[in-house]
Amino acid sequence: MPETNLPVFSIITPTCRRPLLLRRNIQSITCQSFSDYEHIIVDDANDRDTEGLINEIGDKRIILKQHTSSRGAAGGYNTGIKTSRGKFILFLDDD
Question: How would you write the pLDDT of the chain (95 residues) with one tens digit per residue?
Fold first, then answer.
């Protein structure tokens, strides 16, 4: 049975130990008028600072996926795609 209430957009952001840039990235998305999205953050470093930032922001649309070993940006995109539920997929790097 198809899942209801799926987001229109899945925004995928790979990141690796750059919580300050990631904060700006998230703020740029949350300031938009369109809100029917999920934002998938793929942390390639399993970084506690990134996890803390996501918890601090506390937005249900933000989904954190963490790699246990480094897979690089391409691995982050692939993890994001596999996680995405939106009709459209967008990539937005953390910088």
Answer: 556 789 999 999 999 999 999 999 999 999 999 999 999 999 998 889 999 999 999 999 999 999 999 999 999 999 999 999 999 999 999 98
C-alpha angle 21-26-29 in degrees, rounded to nearest 5: 130
Taking residue 76's Cβ as centre, other Cβ atoms within 10 Å add up to 26
- Supply the DSSP symbol for 82: H
- Residue 46 zone, left/alpha/beta (φ > 0; ψ -120 to 50; rest): left
- Residue 87 is classified by DSSP as S
Three-class DSSP labels, 21-81: HHHHHHHHHHCCCCCCEEEEEEECCCCHHHHHHHHHHCCCCEEEEECCCCCHHHHHHHHHH
User: Within a 10 A sphere around the Cβ of 32, how many other Cβ atoms?
Assistant: 8
